[in-house]
Design brief:
415 residues; alpha/beta; 7-stranded parallel sheet; two-stranded antiparallel sheet; 16 helices; 40% helix; globular
Length: 415
């Protein structure tokens, strides 16, 4: 089947919905999977809201795969598919050297998010942002330094520090909402718009450690020395992230990925205690308001956590490249979606080797419930022609529905 015929079945809908938290002045109800609301106050900057209906995002190939519905080929996108490996991005970054500016200015967010869409036509267009972007909206200031990465000058490690936190002010994140709406208009019915958030544990590592860390000793020590403080922080993050997800959905996101990037730094037992319950609560909160939105959970280094991740209630589990896809599918079963998991280093390999690996991963994942992706983000220095080839291979694959779930026909490839 030609790529154009695969895309033509998609249908796009603009509608109205809202489910912002009551503490911000909104009341929410949920009817037949649609988020509905009424506002107690006038909005100074009214925006559009989106919701599902009979002819909607459910027709997009990526959304269908996330729900385990039949698709004719594997939908594909890449984590970090917008970024420094692209020459057009590097040129833009020279004019706008501040990452905060690039990720918090609507026009720049939209331009950067669309760069890989225009170049490669992935099945998912993820907003250019950062998991730390919402922090200032609930009381945590941070800087992004070129050499050190994120820096939080006032980490939270005590009950007194917790006083700095407040309910998330979504008005301070309008650039995210505006960008998602514009992206949905720009892409139309040709791809899914993807939003994302960090999981509470992962966000907490930055807030407690004061930035990035290789050891996580401060926050791990808090699990034993200040457990009440850490639980209070994680609970606050859980509510803020839940509200932020609903906000992204209302603004136009078809699907949300939850990054528990540093959950793999915990033992499975510790993850059960300090990450899983908060992810489960987020899933429950979002399901109550927007039950039709697929949720993806990704953890870097998740080989020891797969079965536990499945228990959170998400729709799709993202595998990193250290997990064999066949083993991952066997352990998770066919009742949940799976995403991944080509090693990003394969994009530096000869194109025939990349093709073989893509076909192996897709065959092992099976025909239903698989979103083709990398096992981690695109690496700096990745050849753009390899990224183009990755998506070309995916577009030219065709599932053979006559010979079993794991079978994939030979692709007619364009080298």
């Amino acid at each position: 089947m030609a790529p154009s015929s695969l895309i033509s079945g998609c249908c796009y809908l603009v509608s109205t919905s809202s489910s912002l938290p009551a503490q911000l002045g909104f009341l929410s109800t949920c009817q037949t999977g649609v988020c509905l609301s009424s506002s107690r106050r006038k909005r100074s900057n009214p925006k559009r809201f989106f919701m599902a209906s009979s002819s909607s995002s459910s027709d997009l190939i990526l959304v269908k795969a996330a729900r385990g519905e039949p698709v004719s080929r594997p939908p594909a996108w890449m984590m970090r598919q917008a970024g420094r490996y692209m020459a057009v991005y590097r040129k833009l970054a020279e004019k706008h050297p501040s990452f905060r500016e690039r990720s918090e200015t609507t026009d720049l967010i939209v331009e950067i998010s669309l760069q890989p869409w225009k170049a490669f036509r992935p099945d998912g267009v993820i907003i250019f942002s950062d998991i730390l972007t919402p922090l200032p909206a609930f009381g945590v200031s941070f800087d992004m330094e070129e050499a050190r990465g994120p820096v939080i000058e006032s980490p939270i490690r005590s009950k007194e520090d917790l006083k700095a936190l407040h309910p998330i002010d979504l008005e301070k994140l309008q650039f995210v909402g505006e960008s998602l709406g514009i992206l949905r208009d720009e892409v139309g019915d040709q791809a899914a718009i993807l939003g994302f958030v960090g999981a509470p544990w992962t966000i907490a590592t930055y807030i407690v450690e004061g930035g990035t860390t290789r050891t996580y000793t401060t926050i791990k020590n808090m699990c034993h020395t200040c457990p009440d403080v850490l639980r209070a922080l994680l609970s606050h993050l859980t509510q803020a992230i839940s509200d932020y997800i609903v906000f992204q959905v209302e603004s136009g996101a078809h699907c949300i990925q939850i990054f528990d990037s540093w959950g793999g730094q915990l033992t499975p037992d510790m993850w059960d205690r300090w990450s899983r319950p908060y992810i489960e609560e987020i899933v429950s909160n979002v399901r109550e308001k927007c039950p039709e939105i697929p949720l993806v959970l990704y953890i870097n280094g998740n080989g020891g956590l797969l079965e536990r991740m499945k228990g959170t209630g998400v729709d799709v589990i993202g595998l990193d490249w250290t997990v064999d896809m066949a083993d991952g599918r066997r352990r998770l079963g066919r009742g949940i979606g799976i995403q991944g998991n080509v090693d990003p280093a394969y994009l530096f390999s000869p194109l025939p080797a990349l093709t073989d690996e893509i076909q192996r991963v897709v065959s092992c994942a099976g025909q239903r419930g698989h979103i083709l992706n990398l096992g981690h983000g695109v690496l700096v220095g990745t050849p753009e022609e390899a990224v183009a080839h990755f998506f070309e291979v995916a577009r030219n694959m065709k599932f053979n529905t006559t010979i079993g779930d794991g079978a994939v026909q030979e692709s007619k490839l364009v080298a």
